[in-house]
Design goal:
Strand content: 35-45%
Protein name: Transcription factor tau 91 kDa subunit
Distance between the termini: 105 Å
Structural class: mainly beta
Largest sheet: 8 strands, mixed
Number of strands: 38
InterPro entries: WD40_repeat_dom_sf
Helix content: 10-25%
Organism: Hanseniaspora guilliermondii
């Protein structure tokens, strides 16, 4: 039976009622009835078209934002940074990338962000731009004029042990030991027919127009037979001092140090068992930019290998005398082969009798382990914050793979904490500035991050590699990150606020032997076993995306070569832009003469902000020069 329905019967209500009647499904398919020309009780919004969700800025977006901000503020006076410079537009720009920058660079407040943006605007490439003359101040703006020493003021006055122990050190003047050596170091440059000969402690100026470059710098020969162990720079007002530690070759020892090395890093020596004590010197040189370097005084000691020298900030005492002005007394810590970490007070005033040596008989403070052997150490200093006293601690690494934390305001006999880190020897330690976090390396090729404020041992493995030599580690404050090697030819970084992130910075053709970092800027120096010295912008490297990483660059500044037949060292200052990381680069198996290897690289953080730096090779040749 069929039912006829007229058009007048088809109303909205009828259609709705009909939709409620079940319909027989003969095809086993679901049939859905739709209401025609009906109005729903609730109006549904039309479906939005799909749009891809905007992601937070990634690395290369961050760089675009920084460069955009720099372009808006190029006409600003860069130094010093004032609150007036922080415009609303800049705050909006930086707030968009605050979280990313906080993780990668270690800070996100507007003052540090603007300072970092200006650092990057100054050094947008892998090589620093030429210095800019500021007509308003009649001076040259070089690097950021910020000295870490300015953050520390009362380390001695608030430290009981240091204050009470300053009079414990005795220094005696004795006639110099006369040691005449007929051997000289021979040096040449691009013109190999022109050979320069330097005797011990002789200084020469780098000739003009070397390889077509006008290089301002000097070379010091610390001695062909003596062996330099360590060096650092001390800056005070308008004076810069070069502190050099070296071992003195004994008269009855026919071999030079380069002939009897145990390893190519000069970390240990095959010492003659007949020699009960090793004579060492701590020399203080002054850099006079128009003249060269002048040897001011020499401290003699019998402490053996005197290395890992570190300055204790907040301990400087300025004084003047008849001979010179702006002299300074300072505290210097060092690791000695007497199995102790010791603190000494030295000064930069010229000696009353240049023919005499100053004998270091004992130190101000001395830390020695009872049931373990010290292998390395690091000072941990925190500046005065919120009326808290400046703290001074020492973290000591041992042969048994332990870290010992000492508070120099309490005791040098009993450690505050002891952390078991590894089964192998701790080879190096570096602490983050104003932080209780340290990074240490082991003889087994491991890199650990340790939080010393923790109650229990919390060593986190950051890296483990198949190594040729133990990894080396450094801390850089622009940006806040740890830099470490794999023991061969690769350099890695890990941001302080993202320590689980490990990324490669650079690869070289030979083993990276040393790193030179600064508290004033983001450029790191790298020295290799083949005698190369390179520079890389770490801020640009960390902020660049992985996609664009293959285009990041570094600059090779200098290279030492050696003619083993003529026994002549050649310094090549030709600058060459190279790719920072090249996966095809492999570690060279054939090495140069070990005297070419770079022992250390140092930035000279003078108050003028000029871009001076130094590097020293294993043969005891120091080069002091600058970028411009």
């Amino acid at each position: 039976m069929s039912i006829e329905v007229s058009q007048s019967d088809i109303t909205e209500d009828a259609i709705y009622q009909a939709s409620l009647i079940p319909v027989q499904n003969t095809t086993n398919t679901v049939i859905k009835r739709k209401r025609k020309n009906s109005v729903s009780k609730v109006d549904k919004k039309p479906r939005k078209t799909y749009t891809k969700k905007k992601k937070s800025p990634i690395e290369y977006d961050v760089m675009d934002l920084i460069n955009t901000a720099n372009n808006r503020h190029e006409d600003k006076i860069l130094h010093p940074l004032n609150e007036d410079e922080i415009s609303k537009d800049a705050n909006v720009t930086f707030s968009r990338m605050g979280n990313k920058v906080d993780k990668l660079l270690g800070f996100s407040d507007k003052k540090h962000l603007l300072k970092m943006s200006k650092i990057i605007s100054y050094f947008k490439s892998s090589f620093p731009c030429p210095a800019i003359f500021n007509e308003q101040k009649n001076e040259i703006n070089h690097f950021i004029k910020e000295n870490i020493q300015d953050n520390f003021h009362d380390t001695i006055s608030n430290n009981i042990l240091l204050k009470d122990s300053l009079n414990n050190q005795s220094i005696v003047e004795k006639p110099k030991r006369v040691h005449q050596s007929s051997k000289t170091q021979k040096i040449t440059f691009d013109n190999k027919s022109q050979v320069y000969e330097l005797s011990t402690n002789e200084v020469m100026k780098i000739p003009s127009n070397v390889c077509g470059l006008n290089i301002h710098g000097f070379i010091i020969n610390h001695g062909l037979e003596d062996q330099v162990m360590d060096s650092l720079w001390l800056n005070h007002k308008d004076r810069s001092f070069y502190v050099v530690s070296k071992l003195i070759k004994m008269d009855n020892d026919p071999l030079s140090f380069l002939d009897k090395l145990e390893d190519q890093k000069l970390s240990t020596f095959n010492i003659n068992s007949k020699s009960k004590q090793l004579e060492g010197h701590v020399e203080i040189w002054e850099l006079r930019k128009d003249i060269g370097l002048i040897l001011i005084k020499t401290y003699k000691h019998n402490l053996g290998i005197f290395k890992d020298m570190q300055l204790i900030h907040g301990t400087y005492e300025s004084f003047d005398n008849e001979a010179s002005k702006n002299n300074i007394r300072f505290l210097l810590s060092s690791y000695c082969t007497t199995e102790a970490v010791q603190v000494f007070q030295l000064d930069t005033s010229p000696t009353t009798n240049p023919t005499n040596d100053l004998i270091l008989n004992n130190s101000i403070l001395k830390i020695k382990l009872n049931n373990d052997i010290i292998s390395c150490y690091s000072l941990i200093q925190k500046c005065n914050q919120k009326n808290d006293h400046e703290s001074l601690k020492v973290c000591i690494g041992s042969v048994n793979g332990k870290l010992y934390l000492y508070d120099l305001n309490l005791s040098v006999e009993t450690p505050l904490k002891v952390f078991k880190v590894s089964e192998s020897m701790i080879t190096s330690i570096k602490s983050a500035l104003n932080s209780s976090t340290v990074c240490c390396t082991t003889m087994g090729g491991q890199v650990f991050i340790v939080e010393l404020s923790a109650v229990h041992s919390n060593a986190n493995l950051l890296s483990k590699t198949i190594w040729v030599s133990p990894p080396i580690v450094e801390y850089i404050d622009h940006p806040k990150a740890f830099l470490f090697t794999d023991g061969t030819n690769s350099l890695f970084y890990s941001p302080l606020n993202m320590l689980d992130l490990k990324s490669i910075c650079a690869t070289r053709q030979s083993r990276i032997s040393c790193l030179g970092i600064s508290q004033q800027h983001a450029f790191a120096l790298m020295g290799t076993l083949s005698g190369e010295v390179s520079i890389e912008n770490m801020s640009m490297r960390i902020l660049v995306s992985r996609k664009n990483f293959k285009f990041s660059e570094l600059v090779k500044l200098f290279e030492w070569n050696y003619d083993e037949v003529k026994k002549i060292y050649q310094l090549d200052p030709t600058r060459k832009i190279e790719r920072a990381h090249d996966g095809a680069v492999k570690l060279e198996t054939g090495l140069k003469y070990q005297g070419c290897g770079i022992m250390n690289t140092r930035w000279i953080e003078c108050n003028s902000g000029e871009r001076y730096f130094s590097f020293m090779n294993n043969a005891g040749l120091s080069v002091v020069t600058k970028i411009d």
